[in-house]
Amino acid sequence: MLAPFARSLTYMLALQMMANTNTTKEAVQKPPPSLYKRVLPDSCTAFSSSSGKRIFASALAHNGLKSFYSLIQQFTTQSEPAYCGLTTLVLILNALSVDPLINWKGPWRWYSEELLNCCLPLEEIKTSGITIMDFACLARCQGLQVEMTYAEEDGLSKFRQAVKEACVESSPSSFPSDGLFDRNQQESSINTPSPDEKLDKVLAVSYSRKVLSQTGSGHFSPIAAYDPESDQVLILDTARFKYGAHWTKLELLYDAMKPIDTTSGKSRGYALLSFPDDKFGCCRLSSKSEATAVQPMSLLFSTKLSQSPARKKYKDFLNKLTQNVTLDMVVDYWTQSPDTSVWDILKPLSVPENQDQRESVNALHRLIDDAWENIDGTHEAHYEELIQQESNGKAAKGHTNILHSIFVVFLASLEERSRNAIVRQAQHDKKTHSDLSIEQLLNEASLIATEIETSDQNDTGCPKKRCCKKRRLERWESKATT
């Protein structure tokens, strides 16, 4: 009599186990979350709401829109979840009418996030974002003057002054203070802009969203307007997929800068950015520089600020030499000690997915091979074991291997004239290398040379002794005079 019962019990247990298994599979296969925007908390007022429009009208009446019109023309959405800092800077650079001196698409020169390739690797920024110090470094590299301030307990008045400096016009508005204005007077003001109205300073803030009762953690955005009547600022939130532009209390925003940024160990803060009018300071394009240029952007390597000590150590080695540096010296430096590797100062970039970019990288590798053979006929065959041992997984097939990297560092260690002679001799001997490959390899060496040269120049928080734009401008002007 118990046998049928036992079979039934076993069958029921088996069904339950199957159900649990299916439930587990469903949990594993559960699709990732899908979100469409967030509702602004009560601490913020949507720019497009009725209340937001009233605050805007008050800001207009009190001359608090100095930055608004230039910024709103460039307002855009960050292309990566962690790109808020980059997008804020791109927005500001374009609002300040800074010429990047490089082509964006076709013949057009314009800033976009992928052009901000100094100070930190873009791949690293995609995952971890940037600090206010990184932001200042990137801004300086593009020729901006930066007044950066960390939030302090007694610094509210200083922040309010920075807001007014960026957002409040010094000359009175032509509109009545009650916000009601005559149409003819309005059109006259709009159609006859004064040359003095050109935007000169923009304020960027780094703050904690949590203090504003928003979701997320650290964030960057520009401040576009200020209404002294309600003491509110307009945040052009670059994460428009999450929150639109909104007003919030100035004091609350300042409080949102006080929490410690776990990456830097310091509070967040704000930066006043301006673009000087002098030729180099840093760095307005002169009238004779009219050619098209290609930015010295690395196709082979990325570098980090944390690698500066290793670069300084190598710089000290070069400075102590009593004779001209040779390829053998550089190879020995990076290979003789188990504690020293060229990967201490740079990192090979991943193989590009784009076919054209991948071919450009391969062309650079072939050029390096030929240039090496002109100096040392043994070349890579002699160092095959070294490539396998020293790469240590960092230079898989298609990447820039350790010898390619050491050779670029060797070029970077030479005077510019010697560097050019070696690379162009390879082009002359083989007749197969394009001018574009020659120029790019020289750019690669120039970038590394600058990193080595400035490895001990960190007093301004920026690793560049000369900003990236200044170096590009100098290269342009040297071409224009030859």
TrEMBL record:
Keywords for the protein's UniProt record, in alphabetical order: Cadmium, Metal-binding, Transferase
GO biological process, one term: phytochelatin biosynthetic process
Domain of life the protein comes from: Eukaryota
InterPro entries, A to Z: Papain-like_cys_pep_sf, PCS-like, PCS_N, PCS_N_sf
PROSITE patterns per UniProt: PCS
EC number(s) on file: 2.3.2.15
Matches recorded under SUPFAM superfamilies: Cysteine proteinases (SSF54001)
Name of the protein in question: glutathione gamma-glutamylcysteinyltransferase
Source organism of the structure: Cylindrotheca closterium
